[in-house]
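G., the chain you wanted modeled:
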Amino acid sequence: MQKISRFLLILLCLLLVLPVAGCGGRNNNDEEGEITDLTKLTKDELKVYDEYLFSYKDRDLKGLSPLSICKFYLLSQTREYDDRETMWNLLSEDTAPPNSQEYIKADPEDEIVQYIDEELYTDVEDVREEFIDDNTVLVKWKAVKDGKTYAIKLVKVTDKLTGDEAWKIIYPPLIKE
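Predicted structure as tokens:
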């Protein structure tokens, strides 16, 4: 009996720890391997996302796909997270986003924040990256809610000191097609 109790305790602990570690409930794909929720991160993406939350250094984004950056932004703006500091840091400075303090402290209903209806990116199909040129890409998806196609435009930025390249989101973020 004691062995069964110990086994159940270990099993319960694993079930509680796995989602936090990026496994279990963090699955990004449906049965066929297609992305169906743009806020679900892979294990590798979750690790980078957690590192980025503590540094906001573009070097942490080096080598990530535009889709990964898009997912970071959308996850940050969910009701669960509502992390405007992360949202602002994922925006390209070159596209003249609003002042960081103004953006972070803005009322949730203020147009400056540009919140996107969660149902438009948490139940999606046909997710794809369409490169406009080597430095600009659209991450597109079709929202199941209304059947319309949406996109977020990203640009490749280069750190002036290190030369590291990373994708950042062009403000305002959402494009409706």
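Confidence is low (pLDDT under 50) at residues 2-32.

Shout if anything looks off.
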